[in-house]
Amino acid sequence: MADDESDLVAIRNAMFEGPNRDIYLHTGYFMNFFALVEINITYLLGLVLETREPAGFDLLVRGMDARVKVERLRKACKLKERPLGHHIKLRLNYFEQTIIPLRNRLTHAVLTQTDDEGGDGGEWLHFATLVNLSAKAGQPESMRTATLFERGRWLQLFGQDLNALLNEGFAKTLEINNPQSPVPQEGH
Questions:
Q1: Three-class HEC string of 18-34
Q2: CA torsion angle 116 119 123 129 (round to 10)
Q3: Between the CA of residue 169 and those of 15, 40, 48, 141, 147, what are the distances in Å?
Q4: What is the Cα–Cα distance from 44 to 124, expressed in whole angstroms?
Q5: What is the pLDDT of residues 98-149, one digit of tens each?
Q6: Whole-structure pTM over 0.85, yes or no?
Q7: Among 1-5, 51-55, 165-169, the least confident range
Q8: Where does residue 169 fall: left (phi above 0), alpha (psi -120 to 50 degrees), or beta otherwise?
Q9: Is the separation of the CB atoms in 174 and 85 below 8 Å?
């Protein structure tokens, strides 16, 4: 790339002020807090397994996807007889069943804005793939912009819950006391 720094700043400003601003903003927000939750789950896994060599543990889990880390955390808790509490179980289930598939869609599709608003005045995003480059609002390949933000916000709160758990240390049962992340309703 031959662009100098001032050119890059101008290009960045134009992109972040342009029509795709919300895509970049919402996707970045979601992905940043997804990473926080994933690293906290990795940290919990290491603590439950009583890892004494962080560099070696990092070598083992680096590249392991979030779904596998959740699965391994559950198995490690059983192996070490450290049960998961009710609050953390509910949130790990939501993370695994809803958040991880959304993260995968975000990383394996091109996110675009849909051409119509679905008649409800809401903003919609579309997950474009080779076989489905365009869509209408409300179709399975689309999502409300507000929903993506809501899921990013949930990740932020769940990350804070996990941080609190890690900072408290934990007893025999791995549990989030006074969770800030809500338990999403069915279909959310």
A1: CCCHHHHHHHHHHHHHH
A2: -40
A3: 43, 13, 11, 41, 33
A4: 36
A5: 999 999 999 998 888 765 555 555 688 888 877 777 666 667 688 888 999 9
A6: yes
A7: 1-5
A8: left
A9: yes
Residue with tokens 């005045």: 121
Structural tokens at position 19:
């029509």
End-to-end CA distance of the chain: 42
> Which pair of tokens denotes residue 85?
């509490």
**DSSP string computed for 110-163:** EEEE-SS-TTTT--EEEEEBTTB----TTSTTEEEHHHHHHHHHHHHHHHHHHH
3-state secondary structure 92-103: HHHHHHHHHHHH
Identity (one letter) of the amino acid at 65? D
Q: How far is CA 32 from CA 25, 45, 69, in A?
A: 11, 20, 18
Structure tokens at 148: 């993506």
